[in-house]
Amino acid sequence: MSELKQIGHWIDGKPHGRPVERHGDVFDPATGQVAGKVAMATPAVVDEAVASAQAAFASWRSSSLTKRSRILFAFRELVEKHKAEIAAYLTAEHGKVTADAMGEVQRGLEVIEFACGIPHLLKGEFSENVSTEVDVWSIRQPLGVVAGITPFNFPAMVPMWMYPLAIACGNTFVLKPSERDPSAANFCAELFAEAGLPPGVLNVVHGDKVAVDRLLEHPDVKAISFVGSTPIAQYIYETGTRHGKRVQALGGAKNHMIVLPDADMELAADAAVSAGYGSAGERCMAISMVVAVGDAADRLIPKMRERIAKLKVGPGHLEGMEMGPLVTRVHRDKVAGYVDAGVAEGAELVTDGRPFKVPGHEGGFFLGPCLFDKVEPGMSIYKDEIFGPVLGVSRVASYDEAIARVNAGPYANGVALFTNDGGAARKFQHEVEVGMVGINVPIPVPVAFYSFGGWKASLFGDLHIYGMDGVRFYSRNKVFTGRWPDPRHRGVDLGFPTSK
Ligand code: NAD
Fold first, then answer.
1. Is 370 labeled as catalytic in the residue annotation?
2. What is the dotted CATH code of the domain comprising 255-439?
3. Residues with Cβ < 8 Å from 227, sequence gap 6 or more?
Protein backbone atom coordinates (compact mmCIF):
# COMPACT_ATOMS: atom_id res chain seq x y z
CA MET A 1 0.00 0.00 0.00
CA SER A 2 2.75 2.44 0.99
CA GLU A 3 4.63 2.07 -2.32
CA LEU A 4 1.54 2.88 -4.39
CA LYS A 5 1.58 6.19 -6.18
CA GLN A 6 -0.70 8.78 -4.55
CA ILE A 7 -2.48 11.15 -6.92
CA GLY A 8 -3.95 14.24 -5.26
CA HIS A 9 -5.77 17.41 -6.32
CA TRP A 10 -4.07 20.52 -7.73
CA ILE A 11 -5.64 23.62 -6.21
CA ASP A 12 -4.48 27.23 -6.15
CA GLY A 13 -1.29 26.49 -8.06
CA LYS A 14 -0.03 23.71 -5.79
CA PRO A 15 -0.73 20.16 -4.67
CA HIS A 16 -3.61 20.02 -2.23
CA GLY A 17 -2.12 19.12 1.10
CA ARG A 18 -5.18 18.17 3.15
CA PRO A 19 -5.87 14.61 4.31
CA VAL A 20 -7.88 12.58 1.81
CA GLU A 21 -11.17 11.03 2.96
CA ARG A 22 -11.79 8.71 -0.03
CA HIS A 23 -9.53 7.07 -2.59
CA GLY A 24 -10.06 5.28 -5.90
CA ASP A 25 -7.85 2.61 -7.46
CA VAL A 26 -5.82 3.41 -10.57
CA PHE A 27 -4.77 0.28 -12.49
CA ASP A 28 -1.92 -0.61 -14.77
CA PRO A 29 -4.14 -2.17 -17.46
CA ALA A 30 -1.24 -4.17 -18.91
CA THR A 31 -0.70 -6.10 -15.67
CA GLY A 32 -4.09 -5.77 -14.03
CA GLN A 33 -2.42 -4.56 -10.84
CA VAL A 34 -3.44 -1.51 -8.79
CA ALA A 35 -0.70 1.03 -9.51
CA GLY A 36 -1.93 4.08 -7.65
CA LYS A 37 -4.54 5.66 -5.42
CA VAL A 38 -6.38 8.75 -6.54
CA ALA A 39 -8.00 11.18 -4.12
CA MET A 40 -11.76 11.46 -4.56
CA ALA A 41 -12.95 15.00 -3.88
CA THR A 42 -15.66 15.76 -1.36
CA PRO A 43 -17.98 18.72 -1.96
CA ALA A 44 -15.76 20.74 0.43
CA VAL A 45 -12.69 20.12 -1.75
CA VAL A 46 -14.62 21.14 -4.87
CA ASP A 47 -15.68 24.31 -3.05
CA GLU A 48 -12.02 25.07 -2.29
CA ALA A 49 -11.09 24.70 -5.95
CA VAL A 50 -13.99 26.87 -7.10
CA ALA A 51 -13.13 29.50 -4.47
CA SER A 52 -9.54 29.57 -5.70
CA ALA A 53 -10.73 29.94 -9.31
CA GLN A 54 -13.23 32.63 -8.32
CA ALA A 55 -10.55 34.60 -6.44
CA ALA A 56 -8.18 34.38 -9.43
CA PHE A 57 -10.83 35.49 -11.93
CA ALA A 58 -10.79 39.25 -11.22
CA SER A 59 -7.14 39.74 -12.08
CA TRP A 60 -6.97 37.04 -14.80
CA ARG A 61 -9.87 38.52 -16.78
CA SER A 62 -8.10 41.92 -16.64
CA SER A 63 -4.72 40.55 -17.73
CA SER A 64 -3.71 41.71 -21.19
CA LEU A 65 -4.23 39.54 -24.22
CA THR A 66 -0.50 39.76 -24.83
CA LYS A 67 0.25 38.36 -21.39
CA ARG A 68 -2.25 35.52 -21.77
CA SER A 69 -0.92 34.69 -25.19
CA ARG A 70 2.71 34.66 -23.98
CA ILE A 71 1.85 32.26 -21.13
CA LEU A 72 0.10 30.01 -23.65
CA PHE A 73 3.14 30.07 -25.93
CA ALA A 74 5.34 29.10 -22.95
CA PHE A 75 2.90 26.30 -22.05
CA ARG A 76 3.00 25.11 -25.65
CA GLU A 77 6.80 24.88 -25.47
CA LEU A 78 6.68 22.91 -22.21
CA VAL A 79 4.08 20.46 -23.53
CA GLU A 80 6.18 19.96 -26.66
CA LYS A 81 9.29 19.37 -24.53
CA HIS A 82 7.52 16.92 -22.18
CA LYS A 83 5.40 15.13 -24.80
CA ALA A 84 6.99 11.76 -24.14
CA GLU A 85 6.46 12.06 -20.38
CA ILE A 86 2.79 12.94 -20.83
CA ALA A 87 2.43 10.03 -23.25
CA ALA A 88 4.03 7.70 -20.69
CA TYR A 89 1.36 8.63 -18.13
CA LEU A 90 -1.32 7.82 -20.71
CA THR A 91 0.18 4.43 -21.51
CA ALA A 92 0.67 3.58 -17.84
CA GLU A 93 -2.91 4.34 -16.74
CA HIS A 94 -5.04 4.08 -19.89
CA GLY A 95 -3.06 1.32 -21.62
CA LYS A 96 -2.82 2.85 -25.11
CA VAL A 97 0.39 2.18 -27.02
CA THR A 98 3.14 4.81 -27.06
CA ALA A 99 2.66 5.91 -30.69
CA ASP A 100 -1.06 6.44 -30.09
CA ALA A 101 -0.38 8.30 -26.83
CA MET A 102 2.07 10.61 -28.63
CA GLY A 103 -0.61 11.29 -31.25
CA GLU A 104 -3.08 12.17 -28.50
CA VAL A 105 -0.67 14.70 -26.97
CA GLN A 106 0.02 16.18 -30.41
CA ARG A 107 -3.70 16.77 -31.06
CA GLY A 108 -4.05 18.44 -27.64
CA LEU A 109 -1.02 20.58 -28.37
CA GLU A 110 -2.68 21.82 -31.55
CA VAL A 111 -5.55 23.28 -29.51
CA ILE A 112 -3.01 25.09 -27.31
CA GLU A 113 -1.46 26.47 -30.52
CA PHE A 114 -4.88 27.66 -31.66
CA ALA A 115 -5.43 29.32 -28.25
CA CYS A 116 -2.08 31.16 -28.60
CA GLY A 117 -3.87 33.27 -31.24
CA ILE A 118 -6.37 34.60 -28.72
CA PRO A 119 -5.65 38.30 -29.42
CA HIS A 120 -6.93 37.72 -32.94
CA LEU A 121 -9.71 35.28 -31.98
CA LEU A 122 -11.30 37.62 -29.43
CA LYS A 123 -11.51 40.65 -31.72
CA GLY A 124 -14.80 42.49 -31.54
CA GLU A 125 -16.83 44.21 -34.23
CA PHE A 126 -17.35 47.88 -35.04
CA SER A 127 -19.93 49.56 -37.27
CA GLU A 128 -19.56 53.26 -37.91
CA ASN A 129 -22.66 55.41 -38.43
CA VAL A 130 -25.42 52.84 -37.95
CA SER A 131 -27.52 55.94 -37.49
CA THR A 132 -26.31 59.48 -38.06
CA GLU A 133 -23.17 59.80 -35.94
CA VAL A 134 -24.10 56.75 -33.93
CA ASP A 135 -21.65 53.83 -33.77
CA VAL A 136 -22.20 50.24 -32.61
CA TRP A 137 -19.46 47.93 -31.43
CA SER A 138 -19.19 44.62 -29.63
CA ILE A 139 -16.63 42.84 -27.46
CA ARG A 140 -16.47 39.32 -26.04
CA GLN A 141 -15.88 38.87 -22.31
CA PRO A 142 -15.21 35.78 -20.20
CA LEU A 143 -17.90 34.04 -18.16
CA GLY A 144 -16.10 33.47 -14.83
CA VAL A 145 -15.29 30.06 -13.37
CA VAL A 146 -15.73 27.29 -15.93
CA ALA A 147 -15.59 23.55 -15.19
CA GLY A 148 -14.53 20.67 -17.44
CA ILE A 149 -15.46 17.03 -16.85
CA THR A 150 -13.60 14.57 -19.05
CA PRO A 151 -13.59 10.85 -20.01
CA PHE A 152 -10.96 8.17 -19.53
CA ASN A 153 -10.15 7.60 -23.18
CA PHE A 154 -8.22 10.82 -23.88
CA PRO A 155 -6.82 11.89 -20.49
CA ALA A 156 -4.59 14.63 -21.96
CA MET A 157 -6.23 15.68 -25.23
CA VAL A 158 -9.86 16.11 -24.19
CA PRO A 159 -8.99 18.39 -21.22
CA MET A 160 -6.82 20.35 -23.71
CA TRP A 161 -9.88 20.74 -25.94
CA MET A 162 -11.22 22.84 -23.07
CA TYR A 163 -8.93 24.63 -20.63
CA PRO A 164 -6.39 26.34 -22.95
CA LEU A 165 -9.15 28.14 -24.82
CA ALA A 166 -11.31 28.82 -21.74
CA ILE A 167 -8.30 30.32 -19.96
CA ALA A 168 -7.19 32.24 -23.07
CA CYS A 169 -10.65 33.85 -23.13
CA GLY A 170 -10.06 35.12 -19.56
CA ASN A 171 -11.95 32.49 -17.57
CA THR A 172 -10.58 30.46 -14.70
CA PHE A 173 -10.99 26.70 -14.77
CA VAL A 174 -11.71 23.67 -12.58
CA LEU A 175 -10.97 20.37 -14.31
CA LYS A 176 -12.45 17.08 -13.09
CA PRO A 177 -10.64 14.44 -15.18
CA SER A 178 -11.51 10.77 -15.31
CA GLU A 179 -10.67 8.99 -12.08
CA ARG A 180 -9.35 6.02 -14.10
CA ASP A 181 -6.27 7.82 -15.51
CA PRO A 182 -5.78 11.03 -13.52
CA SER A 183 -2.00 11.65 -13.58
CA ALA A 184 -1.62 13.42 -16.95
CA ALA A 185 -4.02 16.20 -15.87
CA ASN A 186 -1.90 17.03 -12.83
CA PHE A 187 1.33 16.97 -14.79
CA CYS A 188 -0.07 19.34 -17.43
CA ALA A 189 -1.40 21.70 -14.73
CA GLU A 190 2.11 21.81 -13.25
CA LEU A 191 3.54 22.63 -16.69
CA PHE A 192 1.01 25.44 -17.13
CA ALA A 193 2.02 26.86 -13.73
CA GLU A 194 5.68 26.64 -14.78
CA ALA A 195 4.73 28.58 -17.90
CA GLY A 196 3.61 31.45 -15.67
CA LEU A 197 -0.09 30.79 -15.17
CA PRO A 198 -1.12 32.49 -11.89
CA PRO A 199 -2.37 30.27 -9.02
CA GLY A 200 -6.08 29.48 -9.15
CA VAL A 201 -6.50 29.99 -12.90
CA LEU A 202 -6.35 26.21 -13.49
CA ASN A 203 -7.33 23.76 -10.74
CA VAL A 204 -7.66 19.97 -10.96
CA VAL A 205 -9.99 18.06 -8.65
CA HIS A 206 -10.20 14.29 -8.91
CA GLY A 207 -13.22 12.22 -8.14
CA ASP A 208 -16.53 10.82 -9.27
CA LYS A 209 -20.21 11.74 -9.22
CA VAL A 210 -19.80 13.46 -5.82
CA ALA A 211 -17.38 16.01 -7.28
CA VAL A 212 -19.33 16.36 -10.53
CA ASP A 213 -22.62 16.99 -8.74
CA ARG A 214 -21.06 19.73 -6.63
CA LEU A 215 -19.70 21.43 -9.76
CA LEU A 216 -23.12 21.17 -11.41
CA GLU A 217 -24.87 22.95 -8.58
CA HIS A 218 -22.16 25.38 -7.45
CA PRO A 219 -23.47 28.93 -7.96
CA ASP A 220 -20.01 30.30 -8.89
CA VAL A 221 -19.52 27.84 -11.77
CA LYS A 222 -20.87 29.62 -14.84
CA ALA A 223 -20.34 27.01 -17.55
CA ILE A 224 -19.63 23.31 -17.92
CA SER A 225 -17.88 21.48 -20.76
CA PHE A 226 -18.42 17.73 -20.60
CA VAL A 227 -17.17 14.86 -22.72
CA GLY A 228 -18.19 11.28 -21.91
CA SER A 229 -20.95 8.74 -22.44
CA THR A 230 -24.42 9.72 -23.65
CA PRO A 231 -26.44 8.97 -20.48
CA ILE A 232 -24.04 11.06 -18.36
CA ALA A 233 -23.86 13.80 -21.02
CA GLN A 234 -27.63 14.10 -20.93
CA TYR A 235 -27.62 14.19 -17.13
CA ILE A 236 -24.91 16.89 -17.11
CA TYR A 237 -26.77 18.97 -19.68
CA GLU A 238 -30.11 18.76 -17.90
CA THR A 239 -28.71 19.33 -14.40
CA GLY A 240 -26.28 22.07 -15.40
CA THR A 241 -28.79 24.06 -17.42
CA ARG A 242 -31.36 23.67 -14.61
CA HIS A 243 -28.81 25.41 -12.40
CA GLY A 244 -28.57 28.26 -14.89
CA LYS A 245 -25.24 27.29 -16.45
CA ARG A 246 -24.09 27.32 -20.03
CA VAL A 247 -23.44 23.65 -20.90
CA GLN A 248 -21.92 21.74 -23.81
CA ALA A 249 -22.04 17.97 -23.24
CA LEU A 250 -20.52 15.63 -25.81
CA GLY A 251 -21.73 12.04 -25.62
CA GLY A 252 -21.09 8.58 -27.02
CA ALA A 253 -21.00 7.29 -30.54
CA LYS A 254 -21.51 4.41 -32.95
CA ASN A 255 -19.65 5.36 -36.09
CA HIS A 256 -20.33 3.80 -39.48
CA MET A 257 -17.99 3.45 -42.41
CA ILE A 258 -19.80 2.93 -45.70
CA VAL A 259 -17.79 1.15 -48.38
CA LEU A 260 -19.16 1.42 -51.92
CA PRO A 261 -18.27 -1.31 -54.45
CA ASP A 262 -16.05 1.10 -56.44
CA ALA A 263 -13.84 1.97 -53.43
CA ASP A 264 -10.13 1.20 -53.30
CA MET A 265 -10.46 -1.98 -51.19
CA GLU A 266 -6.82 -1.94 -50.04
CA LEU A 267 -7.29 1.59 -48.68
CA ALA A 268 -10.68 0.69 -47.19
CA ALA A 269 -9.26 -2.38 -45.43
CA ASP A 270 -6.34 -0.37 -44.02
CA ALA A 271 -8.76 2.32 -42.83
CA ALA A 272 -11.32 -0.03 -41.26
CA VAL A 273 -8.67 -1.97 -39.33
CA SER A 274 -6.82 1.18 -38.21
CA ALA A 275 -9.96 3.01 -37.14
CA GLY A 276 -11.65 -0.05 -35.63
CA TYR A 277 -8.81 -1.32 -33.45
CA GLY A 278 -6.70 1.80 -32.81
CA SER A 279 -6.65 2.54 -29.08
CA ALA A 280 -8.39 -0.86 -28.69
CA GLY A 281 -11.57 0.72 -30.06
CA GLU A 282 -11.77 3.08 -27.08
CA ARG A 283 -12.23 6.21 -29.18
CA CYS A 284 -15.43 8.16 -29.65
CA MET A 285 -14.47 8.44 -33.33
CA ALA A 286 -13.59 4.74 -33.72
CA ILE A 287 -15.28 2.93 -36.58
CA SER A 288 -17.44 0.18 -35.11
CA MET A 289 -19.66 -0.75 -38.04
CA VAL A 290 -18.61 -1.17 -41.67
CA VAL A 291 -21.62 -0.98 -43.99
CA ALA A 292 -20.55 -2.77 -47.15
CA VAL A 293 -22.60 -2.11 -50.28
CA GLY A 294 -23.18 -4.76 -52.98
CA ASP A 295 -20.26 -7.17 -53.28
CA ALA A 296 -17.86 -4.94 -51.28
CA ALA A 297 -17.93 -7.21 -48.20
CA ASP A 298 -16.72 -10.26 -50.15
CA ARG A 299 -13.67 -8.36 -51.34
CA LEU A 300 -13.07 -6.38 -48.14
CA ILE A 301 -13.31 -9.00 -45.40
CA PRO A 302 -10.40 -11.21 -46.56
CA LYS A 303 -8.17 -8.11 -46.72
CA MET A 304 -9.28 -7.06 -43.23
CA ARG A 305 -8.59 -10.55 -41.83
CA GLU A 306 -5.08 -10.50 -43.25
CA ARG A 307 -4.35 -7.19 -41.58
CA ILE A 308 -5.96 -8.16 -38.26
CA ALA A 309 -3.83 -11.32 -38.10
CA LYS A 310 -0.68 -9.18 -38.21
CA LEU A 311 -1.68 -6.69 -35.47
CA LYS A 312 0.76 -6.56 -32.56
CA VAL A 313 -1.20 -6.56 -29.32
CA GLY A 314 0.56 -6.18 -25.98
CA PRO A 315 1.68 -3.79 -23.23
CA GLY A 316 1.54 -0.26 -24.62
CA HIS A 317 5.05 0.76 -23.61
CA LEU A 318 6.74 -2.04 -25.58
CA GLU A 319 8.35 -1.05 -28.87
CA GLY A 320 6.27 -1.80 -31.95
CA MET A 321 2.97 -2.57 -30.18
CA GLU A 322 -0.10 -1.44 -32.11
CA MET A 323 -2.93 -2.20 -29.68
CA GLY A 324 -2.89 -2.26 -25.89
CA PRO A 325 -5.25 -3.56 -23.22
CA LEU A 326 -8.66 -2.17 -22.29
CA VAL A 327 -8.90 0.28 -19.42
CA THR A 328 -10.31 -1.95 -16.65
CA ARG A 329 -11.21 -5.60 -16.08
CA VAL A 330 -14.90 -4.67 -15.80
CA HIS A 331 -14.80 -2.93 -19.16
CA ARG A 332 -12.84 -5.76 -20.79
CA ASP A 333 -15.40 -8.29 -19.60
CA LYS A 334 -18.29 -6.12 -20.74
CA VAL A 335 -16.80 -5.88 -24.24
CA ALA A 336 -16.18 -9.67 -24.32
CA GLY A 337 -19.83 -10.07 -23.26
CA TYR A 338 -20.89 -8.19 -26.41
CA VAL A 339 -18.91 -10.69 -28.49
CA ASP A 340 -20.82 -13.53 -26.77
CA ALA A 341 -24.09 -11.70 -27.48
CA GLY A 342 -23.20 -11.17 -31.16
CA VAL A 343 -22.60 -14.91 -31.59
CA ALA A 344 -25.85 -15.72 -29.77
CA GLU A 345 -27.77 -13.26 -31.94
CA GLY A 346 -26.57 -14.93 -35.14
CA ALA A 347 -23.78 -12.72 -36.47
CA GLU A 348 -20.80 -14.57 -37.97
CA LEU A 349 -17.65 -14.23 -35.84
CA VAL A 350 -14.85 -14.10 -38.39
CA THR A 351 -12.02 -13.34 -35.95
CA ASP A 352 -12.39 -14.20 -32.26
CA GLY A 353 -10.17 -12.20 -29.92
CA ARG A 354 -11.62 -13.62 -26.70
CA PRO A 355 -9.04 -16.36 -26.10
CA PHE A 356 -6.14 -13.94 -26.69
CA LYS A 357 -3.55 -13.75 -23.89
CA VAL A 358 -0.22 -11.95 -23.60
CA PRO A 359 2.36 -14.34 -22.12
CA GLY A 360 3.64 -12.93 -18.84
CA HIS A 361 0.69 -10.49 -18.66
CA GLU A 362 -2.14 -12.93 -18.00
CA GLY A 363 -3.68 -10.52 -15.47
CA GLY A 364 -3.78 -7.65 -18.00
CA PHE A 365 -7.07 -6.42 -19.44
CA PHE A 366 -6.37 -7.66 -22.96
CA LEU A 367 -8.89 -8.66 -25.58
CA GLY A 368 -7.77 -9.52 -29.08
CA PRO A 369 -9.37 -7.87 -32.13
CA CYS A 370 -12.80 -9.32 -32.95
CA LEU A 371 -14.47 -9.11 -36.37
CA PHE A 372 -18.07 -9.95 -37.16
CA ASP A 373 -19.72 -10.38 -40.55
CA LYS A 374 -23.48 -10.36 -41.29
CA VAL A 375 -24.38 -8.01 -38.47
CA GLU A 376 -28.01 -6.87 -38.61
CA PRO A 377 -29.48 -3.63 -37.20
CA GLY A 378 -31.56 -5.33 -34.47
CA MET A 379 -28.50 -6.95 -32.84
CA SER A 380 -26.96 -5.46 -29.70
CA ILE A 381 -23.53 -5.35 -31.39
CA TYR A 382 -25.09 -3.08 -34.04
CA LYS A 383 -27.12 -0.86 -31.70
CA ASP A 384 -24.87 -0.31 -28.67
CA GLU A 385 -21.65 1.59 -28.27
CA ILE A 386 -19.27 -1.25 -27.33
CA PHE A 387 -16.10 0.86 -26.95
CA GLY A 388 -13.70 -2.00 -27.52
CA PRO A 389 -11.89 -3.86 -30.32
CA VAL A 390 -15.06 -5.26 -31.87
CA LEU A 391 -15.74 -4.36 -35.48
CA GLY A 392 -18.83 -5.47 -37.39
CA VAL A 393 -19.57 -5.68 -41.10
CA SER A 394 -23.16 -5.24 -42.18
CA ARG A 395 -24.13 -6.01 -45.78
CA VAL A 396 -26.60 -3.89 -47.75
CA ALA A 397 -27.68 -3.90 -51.41
CA SER A 398 -27.49 -0.18 -52.21
CA TYR A 399 -26.14 3.25 -51.27
CA ASP A 400 -29.68 4.33 -50.32
CA GLU A 401 -29.97 1.45 -47.86
CA ALA A 402 -26.56 2.29 -46.39
CA ILE A 403 -27.29 5.96 -45.77
CA ALA A 404 -30.74 5.12 -44.37
CA ARG A 405 -28.96 2.89 -41.82
CA VAL A 406 -26.61 5.70 -40.82
CA ASN A 407 -29.34 8.33 -40.57
CA ALA A 408 -31.58 6.02 -38.50
CA GLY A 409 -28.93 5.67 -35.76
CA PRO A 410 -29.43 7.48 -32.45
CA TYR A 411 -25.79 8.64 -32.34
CA ALA A 412 -24.29 10.95 -34.93
CA ASN A 413 -20.68 11.68 -33.98
CA GLY A 414 -18.60 10.53 -36.93
CA VAL A 415 -19.12 8.69 -40.22
CA ALA A 416 -16.97 7.83 -43.22
CA LEU A 417 -17.63 7.03 -46.86
CA PHE A 418 -15.13 5.12 -48.98
CA THR A 419 -15.59 5.54 -52.72
CA ASN A 420 -13.87 6.80 -55.87
CA ASP A 421 -17.14 8.30 -57.13
CA GLY A 422 -17.13 12.08 -56.59
CA GLY A 423 -20.85 12.33 -57.30
CA ALA A 424 -21.68 9.74 -54.64
CA ALA A 425 -19.41 11.51 -52.18
CA ARG A 426 -21.07 14.86 -52.81
CA LYS A 427 -24.56 13.36 -52.43
CA PHE A 428 -23.44 11.76 -49.17
CA GLN A 429 -22.03 15.03 -47.89
CA HIS A 430 -25.41 16.66 -48.49
CA GLU A 431 -27.61 13.88 -47.10
CA VAL A 432 -25.81 12.41 -44.12
CA GLU A 433 -27.10 13.45 -40.69
CA VAL A 434 -23.85 13.30 -38.72
CA GLY A 435 -21.66 16.05 -37.24
CA MET A 436 -18.23 14.94 -38.52
CA VAL A 437 -17.86 13.31 -41.91
CA GLY A 438 -14.88 11.61 -43.54
CA ILE A 439 -14.59 11.13 -47.30
CA ASN A 440 -12.02 8.32 -47.66
CA VAL A 441 -10.86 9.39 -44.16
CA PRO A 442 -11.95 7.01 -41.41
CA ILE A 443 -11.42 9.20 -38.31
CA PRO A 444 -12.44 12.71 -39.32
CA VAL A 445 -11.50 14.50 -36.07
CA PRO A 446 -11.42 18.15 -37.16
CA VAL A 447 -8.15 20.08 -36.81
CA ALA A 448 -7.96 22.63 -33.97
CA PHE A 449 -9.07 25.61 -36.07
CA TYR A 450 -12.37 23.90 -36.89
CA SER A 451 -14.70 22.68 -34.13
CA PHE A 452 -15.47 19.15 -32.93
CA GLY A 453 -18.95 17.88 -32.25
CA GLY A 454 -21.55 15.33 -33.18
CA TRP A 455 -25.29 15.62 -33.67
CA LYS A 456 -28.25 13.89 -32.00
CA ALA A 457 -27.33 11.81 -28.91
CA SER A 458 -23.63 12.60 -29.43
CA LEU A 459 -23.97 16.24 -28.31
CA PHE A 460 -26.26 18.09 -25.93
CA GLY A 461 -26.00 21.85 -26.33
CA ASP A 462 -25.61 24.30 -29.17
CA LEU A 463 -21.91 24.79 -29.65
CA HIS A 464 -19.23 22.32 -30.63
CA ILE A 465 -15.95 22.15 -28.75
CA TYR A 466 -12.66 24.01 -29.54
CA GLY A 467 -12.13 26.11 -32.69
CA MET A 468 -14.31 29.21 -33.01
CA ASP A 469 -17.24 27.44 -31.33
CA GLY A 470 -14.96 27.07 -28.30
CA VAL A 471 -14.23 30.80 -28.29
CA ARG A 472 -17.97 31.49 -28.49
CA PHE A 473 -18.75 29.01 -25.72
CA TYR A 474 -16.17 30.47 -23.32
CA SER A 475 -17.06 34.12 -23.91
CA ARG A 476 -20.17 36.26 -24.06
CA ASN A 477 -21.03 39.12 -26.27
CA LYS A 478 -21.45 42.70 -25.07
CA VAL A 479 -22.77 45.22 -27.60
CA PHE A 480 -22.46 49.01 -27.31
CA THR A 481 -24.36 51.78 -29.03
CA GLY A 482 -22.75 55.20 -28.61
CA ARG A 483 -22.50 58.75 -29.84
CA TRP A 484 -20.69 61.87 -28.74
CA PRO A 485 -23.11 64.48 -27.37
CA ASP A 486 -24.13 66.99 -30.00
CA PRO A 487 -26.70 69.82 -29.71
CA ARG A 488 -28.65 68.25 -32.60
CA HIS A 489 -29.48 65.29 -30.36
CA ARG A 490 -31.34 67.39 -27.83
CA GLY A 491 -35.10 67.12 -27.35
CA VAL A 492 -37.40 64.62 -25.65
CA ASP A 493 -38.59 61.81 -27.93
CA LEU A 494 -40.67 58.97 -26.45
CA GLY A 495 -40.67 57.00 -29.69
CA PHE A 496 -38.70 53.75 -29.95
CA PRO A 497 -35.18 54.54 -31.20
CA THR A 498 -34.68 53.84 -34.92
CA SER A 499 -31.88 54.69 -37.29
CA LYS A 500 -31.92 58.01 -39.08
P1 NAD B 1 -18.29 8.40 -18.55
O2 NAD B 1 -19.52 9.08 -19.05
O3 NAD B 1 -18.45 7.18 -17.72
O4 NAD B 1 -17.41 9.41 -17.66
C5 NAD B 1 -17.09 10.71 -18.11
C6 NAD B 1 -16.90 11.62 -16.91
O7 NAD B 1 -18.12 11.69 -16.17
C8 NAD B 1 -15.82 11.13 -15.95
O9 NAD B 1 -15.08 12.25 -15.49
C10 NAD B 1 -16.63 10.50 -14.82
O11 NAD B 1 -16.00 10.61 -13.56
C12 NAD B 1 -17.92 11.30 -14.82
N13 NAD B 1 -19.08 10.49 -14.41
C14 NAD B 1 -19.26 9.16 -14.60
N15 NAD B 1 -20.45 8.77 -14.10
C16 NAD B 1 -21.04 9.87 -13.58
C17 NAD B 1 -22.28 10.11 -12.94
N18 NAD B 1 -23.16 9.13 -12.72
N19 NAD B 1 -22.57 11.36 -12.54
C20 NAD B 1 -21.69 12.36 -12.77
N21 NAD B 1 -20.50 12.20 -13.37
C22 NAD B 1 -20.17 10.97 -13.78
O23 NAD B 1 -17.38 8.12 -19.83
P24 NAD B 1 -16.02 7.29 -19.90
O25 NAD B 1 -16.33 5.85 -19.75
O26 NAD B 1 -14.99 7.91 -19.06
O27 NAD B 1 -15.60 7.60 -21.42
C28 NAD B 1 -16.06 6.87 -22.52
C29 NAD B 1 -17.28 7.52 -23.15
O30 NAD B 1 -16.95 8.86 -23.54
C31 NAD B 1 -17.72 6.84 -24.42
O32 NAD B 1 -19.13 6.80 -24.44
C33 NAD B 1 -17.19 7.75 -25.53
O34 NAD B 1 -17.90 7.69 -26.75
C35 NAD B 1 -17.35 9.08 -24.89
N36 NAD B 1 -16.50 10.06 -25.52
C37 NAD B 1 -17.08 10.98 -26.32
C38 NAD B 1 -16.30 11.91 -26.96
C39 NAD B 1 -16.91 12.94 -27.83
O40 NAD B 1 -16.20 13.86 -28.19
N41 NAD B 1 -18.17 12.86 -28.19
C42 NAD B 1 -14.90 11.91 -26.77
C43 NAD B 1 -14.34 10.96 -25.93
C44 NAD B 1 -15.16 10.04 -25.32
1. no
2. 3.40.309.10
3. 149, 150, 151, 154, 158, 161, 233, 249, 250, 284, 465
